Target: Citrate synthase
Amino acid sequence: KNQLFTYDPGFMSTASCKSAITYIDGDEGVLLHRGYPIEQLAENADYLEVSYLLLFGERPNKEQYREFESRVKKHTLVHEQISRFFHGFRRDSHPMAIMCGVSGALAAFYHDSTDVNNIYHRELTAYRLLAKMPTLAAMCYKYSIGQPFMYPQRHLSFSGNFLYMMFATPCEPYVVNPVLEKAMDKIFILHADHEQNASTSTVRTAASSGANPFACIAAGIASLWGPAHGGANEACINMLEEIGSVDRIPEYIEKAKDKNDPFRLMGFGHRVYKNYDPRAKVMRQTCHEVLKELDVQNPLLDVAMELERIALSDPYFVEHKLYPNVDFYSGIILKAIGIPVSMFTVMFALARTVGWIAHWKEMYNQGAIKIVRPRQIYIGHPQRDFDKMEK
Ligand code: SDX
Model:
């Protein structure tokens, strides 16, 4: 147990900050949120319980859970003028482009939660962002298909309400499918936080300048969008569809190993995990459960399973310690739920918002914030003179 908290000096020299929120052991494939293993959280908690744990450091009791849930639900509506903001975008805009825009624009509507030096503002911001991201995400989808926005329903769960806002229409009753609701909630839990990944580090860097929380979250969304990070779930499903069948897998494995080919196996490899990403194990299990309960045959799952089997037995992947990561199976579940591929990274951003907020809050709880200011190794010209050019 005590070996968990001893670091070698080398590690600490590269650590960007101290945090008590999430612990990862990349060699062992361990992920803890406030000390609780991700496998147990995925099995026994719901997303709002995990959100409370990440934000406040301890799991909620029943009363605290009800109070937290009620406060989140109170903030699910967005200012009516934000819906007009959407109409400034093309219908075929990538939803992550819209999310970057509208999340930052929240600062223009909620002035009573932008003073980062006011603890009441900071508390209100946490509830507003956690509650409004699903509403904004669903609005992105509705806008893209030309359907009316659906207002949040407070009698539904966090994930049930999200599915309602995504798929209900004013024309007919919509009943939340409990299988999809549970799968959606589990996907949100598995993406909630992940230590100092690129987007969380982006949020912390933006926060270190005293930027308002909505601007910091917009920066995190921008960073997450890249295919090397949160954009990998969209890239992975596109890759599986391009491979198309099991017999084409060897061709793609060879492409992934070819140093002259920029192709990489999407959903494989990780900067920290040099073992199986524990979230990918839960995701794979959930994949099987959801497809079985929905009685859906998805050939992409067969391709993914065979791709994993071949890659994990290939010396290149073994030597480079490349295993499936959180993005490898998530797309298959999201497709089964009915989420379009273009919205996959928005799902990641929606779920990760609570992690970003938890880190943002932790910075203020740790006292005076010093601006993040990395240095560099200069490899440019030595000093030289610039004389006036006769023009
Ligand atoms: C997420 O940081 C986080 O915690 C992120 C995340 C979170 O929850 O926030 O976990 C979410 O972003 C997961 C990662 C999603 N990205 C992908 O699935 C994209 C595909 N993966 C790769 O781009 C890559 O594995 C990275 C970017 C994820 C990690 O790259 P690293 O650790 O910097 O590894 P590297 O680029 O130094 O590669 C090491 C070697 C290289 O070969 P050599 O030059 O040493 O011979 O492994 C090879 C790479 O070419 N390699 C791969 C590969 N990933 C690395 N080869 C083929 N396919 C891959 N996917």
Notes: Confidence is low (pLDDT under 50) at residues 1-13. Residues 194, 197, 228-229, 232, 256, 264-272, 320, 322, 325-327 surround s-citryldethia Coenzyme A (CB under 6 Å).
